[in-house]
TrEMBL record:
<feature type="domain" description="SH3b">
    <location>
        <begin position="35"/>
        <end position="97"/>
    </location>
</feature>
<feature type="compositionally biased region" description="Low complexity">
    <location>
        <begin position="249"/>
        <end position="273"/>
    </location>
</feature>
<feature type="domain" description="SH3b">
    <location>
        <begin position="103"/>
        <end position="165"/>
    </location>
</feature>
<dbReference type="GO" id="GO:0016998">
    <property type="term" value="P:cell wall macromolecule catabolic process"/>
</dbReference>
<feature type="compositionally biased region" description="Pro residues">
    <location>
        <begin position="238"/>
        <end position="248"/>
    </location>
</feature>
<feature type="domain" description="SH3b">
    <location>
        <begin position="167"/>
        <end position="229"/>
    </location>
</feature>
<dbReference type="InterPro" id="IPR017853">
    <property type="entry name" value="GH"/>
</dbReference>
<protein>
    <submittedName>
        <fullName>SH3 domain-containing protein</fullName>
    </submittedName>
</protein>
<dbReference type="InterPro" id="IPR036028">
    <property type="entry name" value="SH3-like_dom_sf"/>
</dbReference>
<keyword id="KW-0378">Hydrolase</keyword>
<dbReference type="Pfam" id="PF01183">
    <property type="entry name" value="Glyco_hydro_25"/>
</dbReference>
<dbReference type="InterPro" id="IPR018077">
    <property type="entry name" value="Glyco_hydro_fam25_subgr"/>
</dbReference>
<dbReference type="Pfam" id="PF08239">
    <property type="entry name" value="SH3_3"/>
</dbReference>
<dbReference type="GO" id="GO:0009253">
    <property type="term" value="P:peptidoglycan catabolic process"/>
</dbReference>
<feature type="region of interest" description="Disordered">
    <location>
        <begin position="232"/>
        <end position="273"/>
    </location>
</feature>
<feature type="domain" description="SH3b">
    <location>
        <begin position="279"/>
        <end position="346"/>
    </location>
</feature>
<dbReference type="InterPro" id="IPR002053">
    <property type="entry name" value="Glyco_hydro_25"/>
</dbReference>
Amino acid sequence: MNKAVKILAVTLVFFSLAIGSLIAPFGDTAQAASAFQARVTVSKAKVYTGPGKKYRSIGTLYRNTSVTVKGSKGSWYKISFKGKTRYIYNKNAKKIVRAKFTSYKAYVKSYSLKIRNKASSKYKTIRTVYMNTKITVIGQKNGYAYIYSGGKRGYVQKKWLKSTISSYKAYVTASTLNMRKGPGTKYKHVKYLHKRYKVTVSGYSGGWYRVKYGNKTGFVKAQYIKKGTPPVASVAPAPQPAPQPAPAPAQSQPAPEPQPAASAQPGASAPQPVQLDYSPVANFIAYIGYDQLKMYQGPDSNSGVVTTLREKTAVTIIGQNGNWMKVRSSDGKEGFIYKDNLTTDLNRFNPPSGAYGIDISHYQNENNGGIIDFNAIKNSGNSFVIVKATEGETQSTVKQKNTQGETSDQQWTDYTFSSNAKKATEVGLKVHAYHFFRANSVNDAIIEADHFADILNAAIANGANIDYVFVDVETTNGIQNDIKTNLSNNTNAFLKEMRARGFNKLGIYSGLSFYKSYINSSLIEQPQGNPRLLVWIARYRGQDTNNGTGADFQVDIWQYSSNGSVNGINGAVDLNVSYYDPNAV
């Protein structure tokens, strides 16, 4: 090939390359790849017109900025920037890898749980699900589980879910029982159940059990369901004939004449066998199902009372007479208790799970020689304590007791309050306080609130952190006319004055029956923007505690036993469980 031809060939090669670069200066040589999202990992990443620093820089991306990577060339990512194809150094960004969420089944472990349309308590409630309801978790966000239940999707707090269901066998005690789709008479009928039908109980809500019978699941009134298996009708064994002496063996000599017993008296009758009022059984231990339960002399509540026993007290079962069990207490007393008031399962005394705590007053200090071990209380699994601060307004209702045991005519303050509140704060327990309400007028209610606020402020100045404060309303305080309205108005005046004194975290304590009879919640103000008024209810259900409060309204704190025990305190103490969570209500 001559020199001219070689020059022409080289010229054509360079010309074709130049034309190609004009047509597709970068795109055709970039590695083909599926587009993906990446995130900038440096504080500033410069954007260039081409794959290298020799090209012009026309912008900056900042840390955590998300970009779409369409391809790469060498060490450079091809990206979309302001609608045009640009480049950034690939060490300045990292591909976003989103882990695929695997859905799973779970169950509700609180007795009621709100499903919301977004992951926060401030958003709308879609529906409410109840204890042991089965749901499907399909995602999660900021402590909330994104779930699917009953055709609805929404968010619930993840901590109120569990992986396994709690259930037990039971049977129907009513002749006919209506199973409904939900916990209330407003729900549609599912099926009729009849006496002695065996069911599986898997949840509870407001006096209704969630049960399964065959392939049907629904809700029935809890009072017509009993744990265990239906009793089998038994027939008393026929009396056995008295044993007869065996015939004497043949002897070669006549038998000697029988001699009378040394104790026999002329004309005395033969001794009679002892008649038992029960059939003996193999002894076993059971527990008193309800507090202050009477032990009777015979198998009848009309017979005399032997003694009264506290809930969870262990007794020995030694016999049975029909539906009555013959029992022996630890101090040797014997009597009869109706069989449905006994249980062998201590788990029945445990409430549905929540945050556990106790409430105390000077009585607990006095049972401990003045000392309460708050560290031991906390280490026993308690997270809060509710401490009595004050009662009434003047000494017309109750005497003040000081640290020397003396009384005075001053407004009543629990002399252990400030010290108890401070010590509980120091070990990390959440501290609430309460005032026992005695007012029978609006004016007296304001005076009581002012005294309560003064004592709270003194304790705070002494180092106590006080969270919620409660008014304890459990007496009618001598009100004669329209008790419910007047007592409710007085209570509202007390709470209103507490807000005026700067206390906005407020609550009402009462027994369940008293609250429903004498507190009109519509007369209790709840100002917008304030923390919600909490309801603290006392109801002692004994061996039915595991079924929840049984209230038909929301209970935030449940005092479920007055006969509890806890490390750090000698003697009985009130036990509480809190279902209040600012993020869940």
